[in-house]
Design goal:
Largest sheet: none
Biased composition (Basic residues): 1-11
Number of domains: 1
Region (Disordered): 1-28
Number of helices: 6
Transmembrane segments: 33-53, 73-93, 114-135, 155-179
Mean pLDDT: 78
Low-confidence stretches: none
Number of strands: 0
Keywords: Membrane, Transmembrane, Transmembrane helix
Shape: extended
Strand content: under 5%
Order of helices and strands: HHHHHH
Helix content: over 70%
Radius of gyration: 26 Å
Length: 188
């Protein structure tokens, strides 16, 4: 009588399915590491860009809005607050439609949606810079500078910006619900 003491034991996995000799972990693909590096560089680049835009451009835009905008910086902050959720929604919607399946089936449409997502995300960068400039009171952890022009002349502008951003987000959410209901009614 030969054989194993446990006859119902499963066979070992074939050699192609076993881990390599690299510490018991499967090797990462080269593309994943490259994507991680590029993602880090993109985040670092956006951070530097925000700081540069704030230093070189922030106060001048608020001063221009104070002189030339019909409602002054308050109306400008309301328009920015309403536009930001719409741009964010446009960027997410466009990026969602440019997935790997779209690139195989419709490369032209996927390229257009990717370009639209990048344009909408790029348009959000100056908005964030202006929002940070409106909150700059000059008191930081290691700063002893003066507050920004907009904070010294319009100290509660940030509150109006946040309120209009929330109102814009509610408006975008309401619009998405209405569009979803219409598409479901059309399918039925």
């Amino acid at each position: 009588m030969g054989g194993s003491a446990k006859p119902r034991r499963p066979k070992a996995a074939p050699a192609a399915l076993r881990y390599r000799e690299s510490g018991g972990k499967p090797r990462r693909k080269r593309g994943e590491a490259l994507f991680g590096c590029l993602s880090f560089l993109a985040v670092a680049g956006v951070t530097v860009l925000l700081a540069l835009i704030d230093m070189l451009w922030g106060d001048e835009v608020w001063q221009w809005a104070g002189r030339n905008w019909p409602g002054g910086p308050y109306a400008f902050a309301v328009c920015l607050g309403i536009a930001a959720p719409a741009l964010l929604t446009l960027a997410v919607w466009s990026a969602d439609g440019a997935g790997p399946t779209s690139w195989k089936t419709r490369p032209g449409r996927a390229a257009a949606r990717t370009a639209l997502a990048l344009a909408a995300a790029t348009a959000l960068v100056p908005f964030l810079s202006l929002a940070f400039n409106a909150v700059d009171n000059g008191k930081g952890k290691h700063r002893t500078g003066n507050p920004s022009w907009v904070f010294s002349h319009y100290p509660w502008l940030w509150a109006l910006g946040i309120a209009s951003t929330l109102a814009g987000a509610v408006g975008v959410a309401w619009m998405l619900v209405v569009l979803h209901r219409r598409s479901e009614a059309a399918r039925a």
